[in-house]
Amino acid sequence: MQASKIRFSRYIRPLSYLVDLFIINWFSYFFIHQNIFFHLCISLAWVVIAVNTDFYEIYRFTKPYKIVVKIIKQYVLFIFVNLIFVGLLEENIGVKRLLTYISIAFVVVLAVKFFIHYFLKFFRIYYGGNYRNVVIIGDRTDKLADFFTRNPDFGYVITKRYTKEAAKQNNYVDLFSYLKNGAVNEIYISIASFTDKDIYRISKFADNNLIKVKLLIDRKSVFTRNLVKDFYNDIPIVSLRVFPLDDVNNRIIKRVFDVVFSTLVIIFLLSWLIPILALLIKLESRGPVFFTQKRNGLNYKEFCCIKFRSMYVNKVSDTNQVSRGDRRITRIGAVLRKTSLDELPQFFNVFIGDMSVVGPRPHMVNQTKEFALSIDKFMIRHFIKPGITGFAQISGCRGEVETKRDILKRVRYDIYYSENWSILFDVKIIIKTVLNAVKGEEKAY
């Protein structure tokens, strides 16, 4: 297993949102209206329209004409929305003045968008930044390799190529060894070269090592599986495993929800609850009020998970998980764990971005290393942020991992959540978590 290569490209789209919102509001301020309500309305409208038109779904392989098509759609819909808002304000601004404002703003937005698009191409060619290390596996892959070689502006660097025979050599040992130690971001598999069983084996290894899998399909074949297909010029590429949170709009929605929810909890609950619980914890035993522990989060990155201390200070708290009747647990700690109040400080983790309100529960570092080696697809959980609660926890998979079956069920639920995320799904999990905490759970100890 390996930590994914850190890239800063994930920040490009959020930054694009902010820049575009600044542009339309700046021109609106001078051309149309200085009413704060109007600015809030057009900002919200811009985001909603952009989400529905995929305005920010621009990739390194997106062709320029598609960018122009996207901005025309955004332009037309934004004009319509502005006309509505201006009408609501009941002011005679004039259609000509409105069109002038929107047109100038959109010319600037288009210029900025193309600048970013071509700047990144320049950056990849001349500075070698914003690139992805890829491995191509299988026969009849010369066209894809040639495409990557002739288009360095796309930022794909071929670090290794394997023919069908070379990949299968030594029962995939050489291939898996390179994937594990070669800082690989993506692998491209020619499905014409391998059986479903072979592809499943390679993709399972990639999943467990945080490497994304894409399939190079034969144009003559009929591919009926519900997968996401892109085109690199005229080369069809299929992504084998796609998560809703790979979409930047979904990540923004989830992050905004996390910030708002955690802020409310910190202000209205933890602000007065922390002093009370701190006093009770201190009165019963010596030691800090909070217990911090290294856990693995997004892309296998370690972070400090914060909890109320529920045990006497001991030397094995970072290696030995809590079990039923554990003598290390204090009396107030037993209450905190039974009601899940010990988890509340993790809302600070959510606020700073290490965790989400809902997601796969993070494990101790030594447990993560153990499970990553022994449990298939365990590492898929690290494609998204860990959570305070999760689908596995409301489905009876919380608390101590007593058997291998326990962790297998947990991983299955976590993968289902990762592949079927929605904000309504998060709300449902939160409500069920609160209800479970009120009525109590068998494995809450």
Shape: flat
Strand order of the largest sheet: 2-1-3-4-6-5
Number of strands: 10
> What is the makeup of the main sheet?
6 strands, mixed
Helix content: 40-55%
On the 0-100 scale, what is the average pLDDT? 84
> Which class do the helix and strand fractions yield?
alpha/beta
Amino-to-carboxy terminus distance:
31 Å
Radius of gyration: 26 Å
- Helix and strand succession? HHHHEHEHHEHEEEHEEHHEHEHHH
List the uncertain runs.
Answer: 1-6, 220-226
Please, how many helices? Answer: 15
Number of domains: 3
> Proportion of β residues?
5-15%
Describe the structure.
- The structure is a single chain.
- With 445 residues, the protein is α/β, with parallel strands linked by helices.
- It has 3 domains: 119 residues, no CATH class; 111 residues, Vaccinia Virus protein VP39 (Rossmann fold, 3-Layer(aba) Sandwich), CATH 3.40.50; 192 residues, no CATH class.
- The strands form 3 sheets. Strands 2-1-3-4-6-5 form a 6-stranded mixed beta sheet. A two-stranded antiparallel ribbon has the order 7-8.
- Strand 3, helix 8 and strand 4 form a beta-alpha-beta unit.
- Helix 2 packs antiparallel against helix 3 and helix 3 runs antiparallel to helix 4.
- The relative contact order is 0.08.
